[in-house]
């Protein structure tokens, strides 16, 4: 079955699910969706070999939601995910796809989150539970998670769970689920340990393998900014101040957001309009024509509303909301760089959406560079340049300005004022509501930046600078040579040691080890748990950091003396 000649409406999904994805803008399934959805609807077990970003969440969520019994509050679907970030994303996707289902509840459960809140929510009931292995095991041992009526189980990113040392936990959980359950296993690769799980716990699974197809044009410059939600609009307006753009298509996830963002940008003086699925065809065409004839500069759209838009003057695509899969990202940024022109794509990424950023990079085979938010001085310089250019344009125009010359000459004589003084007053009147000199507070905290730098691949230098007040520096025996990322370390510790992510300080990766800052009052039991954890197949072996090596650098020739935690 090919995704090129089939629509979601032909896949026998339930009508509420079809209504929900129609509102989102989904029309044609991706290759993994076109093959996995019919198999899961038929009750088959499947093994899906697919990279993150190919649309695999919808591939299992849509068919499983189509068979959910919302009259029962029993847990009917369990999804295991390697990290809390992925668990949250999968839960949000289920909630979005179930927007037309009444009495539906999905619950993400993971370490570092208040256990009491999870216990209350589980007692109320959730038809779908998405969790990390450690926290799911905790609830099964407490008997707070009842899987006796489980219909289906999903192992998402199974190879990642293997690399993080969770595979034994996964098999323990599977042994505590009904044998009659349906199982879907998704993995980017198929190491022998994952193949053994599939052979042991899945029943004659149908194997579905899809290749990456996403590509982006080399004439499109791509950049991202790691944004904090409360400052998102402020960050956007800063960027618009300094980016020399012609036309912009800006993508958001919902129809409501198109209208809200357009109104906010218009209030800030930008020529902006919304386009979404609620607009009739005539109004949609008029709005696009305004973008073409330059009476409109910014179009805020959903994915479905932007389908088919081909406007050469679009110099920028801004992903105000990151898309859930790489295919959507490729389609979005393809709206710029048309007719051989160059274009620029800017992506806003919330900290918990970093996995989506990595999946887009992996699927497209292109690195997206971090961008620096324009400073107050940069915005001031841009405003001054624009202001002086306006003066130049008027001076060089053929407009008849004799009336103003006579008026201001008379005013100068009567008030004994120099022309410069009058020009200064006029400039102030013109710009007082949009000052040429602006100052901004730094939106992004330094701690967040330092963690991003490590995660984006820059090699840090070992320094003697100590941790922040209230923190203590430790060493763990996993590093770049093992393929580790700060996100892996944070995910493992937060999921399994009951330590909140925000309590984990700066992480610096080196070739064979890493340093991280943890609270000074770290409990011995937590330290022992962290020391036993595995990341990328390596035991962390937590120990107090003793500073830089005196010999051998970071090559494993010499290690500092360490004390076991």
Notes on the protein architecture:
By secondary structure, the chain is α/β, with parallel strands linked by helices. The protein folds into 4 domains: 3-209, P-loop containing nucleotide triphosphate hydrolases (Rossmann fold); 220-375, Rossmann fold; 377-431, no CATH class; 446-544, Alpha-Beta Plaits (2-Layer Sandwich). The protein contains 20 helices and 20 strands. The strands form 4 sheets. The chain has a 7-stranded parallel sheet, with helices on both faces. Strand 10, helix 12 and strand 11 form a beta-alpha-beta unit. The radius of gyration is 28 Å and the shape is globular. The relative contact order is 0.10. Residues 441-472, 543-557 have a biased composition (Basic and acidic residues). Keywords: ATP-binding, Cytoplasm, Helicase, Hydrolase, Nucleotide-binding, RNA-binding, Stress response. A motif (Q motif) lies at residues 6-34. Residues 37-208 form the Helicase ATP-binding domain.
Layout: helices, strands, pairs:
Elements: H1 15-24, H2 31-41, E1 46-49, H3 56-66, E2 77-80, H4 84-97, E3 106-109, H5 115-124, E4 128-131, H6 133-142, E5 152-155, H7 158-163, H8 167-175, E6 182-187, H9 192-201, E7 206-209, E8 220-226, H10 232-242, E9 247-251, H11 255-267, E10 272-275, H12 281-292, E11 298-301, E12 314-319, H13 326-333, E13 343-349, H14 354-364, E14 369-370, H15 376-395, H16 402-415, H17 419-431, H18 446-455, E15 471-476, H19 486-496, E16 507-509, E17 514-519, H20 524-532, E18 534-535, E19 538-539, E20 543-544
Parallel strand pairs: 1-6, 1-7, 2-4, 2-5, 3-4, 5-6, 8-13, 8-14, 9-11, 9-12, 10-11, 12-13
Antiparallel strand pairs: 15-17, 15-20, 16-17, 18-19
Helix pairs in contact: 2-3, 3-4, 6-8, 13-14
């Amino acid at each position: 079955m090919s995704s090129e000649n089939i629509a979601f409406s032909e896949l026998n999904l339930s009508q509420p699910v079809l209504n929900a994805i129609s509102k989102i803008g989904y029309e044609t399934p991706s290759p993994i969706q076109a093959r996995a959805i019919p198999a899961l609807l038929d009750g088959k077990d499947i093994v899906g070999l697919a990279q993150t970003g190919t649309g695999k969440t919808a591939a299992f969520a849509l068919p499983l939601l189509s068979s959910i019994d919302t009259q029962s509050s029993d847990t009917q679907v369990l999804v295991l995910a390697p990290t809390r970030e992925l668990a949250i994303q999968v839960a949000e996707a289920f909630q979005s796809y179930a927007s037309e289902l009444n009495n539906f509840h999905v619950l993400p459960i993971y370490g570092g989150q208040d256990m009491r809140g999870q216990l209350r929510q589980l007692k109320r009931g959730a038809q779908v539970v998405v969790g990390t292995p450690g926290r799911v095991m905790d609830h099964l041992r407490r008997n707070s998670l009842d899987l006796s009526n489980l219909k289906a189980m999903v192992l998402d990113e199974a190879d990642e769970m293997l690399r993080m040392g969770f595979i034994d936990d996964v098999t323990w959980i599977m042994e505590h689920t009904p044998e009659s359950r349906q199982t879907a296993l998704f993995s980017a690769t198929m190491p022998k340990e994952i193949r053994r799980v599939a052979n042991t716990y899945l029943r004659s699974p149908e194997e579905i393998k899809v290749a990456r197809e996403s590509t982006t044009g080399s004439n499109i410059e791509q950049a991202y900014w790691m944004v904090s939600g409360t400052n998102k609009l402020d960050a956007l307006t800063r960027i618009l101040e300094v980016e020399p753009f012609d036309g912009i298509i800006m993508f958001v996830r919902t129809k409501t957001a198109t209208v809200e963002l357009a109104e906010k940008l218009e209030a800030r003086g930008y020529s902006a309009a919304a386009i979404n699925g609620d607009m009739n065809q005539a109004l949609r065409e008029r709005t696009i024509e305004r973008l073409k004839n330059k009476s409109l500069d910014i179009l805020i759209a959903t994915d479905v509303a932007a389908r088919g838009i081909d406007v050469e003057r679009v110099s920028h695509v801004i992903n105000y909301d990151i898309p859930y899969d790489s295919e959507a990202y490729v389609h979005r940024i393809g709206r710029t760089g048309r007719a051989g022109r160059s274009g620029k794509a800017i992506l806003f990424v919330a900290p918990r959406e970093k996995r989506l950023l990595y999946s887009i990079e992996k699927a497209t085979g292109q690195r997206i560079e971090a961008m620096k938010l324009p400073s107050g001085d940069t915005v001031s310089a841009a405003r001054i340049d624009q202001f002086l250019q306006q003066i130049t344009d008027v001076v060089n125009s053929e407009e008849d300005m004799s009336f103003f010359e006579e008026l201001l000459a008379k005013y100068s004589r009567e008030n004994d004022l120099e022309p410069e003084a009058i020009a200064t007053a006029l400039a102030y009147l013109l710009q007082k509501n949009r000052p040429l000199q602006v100052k901004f507070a730094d939106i992004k905290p330094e701690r967040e930046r330092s963690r991003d730098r490590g995660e984006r691949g820059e090699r840090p230098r070992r320094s003697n600078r100590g941790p922040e007040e209230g923190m203590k520096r430790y060493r763990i025996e996993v590093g770049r040579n093992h393929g580790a990322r700060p996100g892996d370390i944070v995910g493992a510790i937060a999921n399994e040691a009951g330590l909140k992510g925000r309590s984990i300080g700066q992480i610096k990766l080196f070739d064979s080890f890493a340093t991280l800052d943890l609270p000074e009052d770290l409990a011995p039991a937590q330290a022992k748990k962290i020391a036993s954890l595995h990341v990328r197949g390596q035991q962390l072996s937590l120990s107090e950091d003793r500073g830089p090596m005196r010999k051998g650098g970071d090559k494993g020739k010499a290690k500092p003396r360490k004390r076991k935690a």
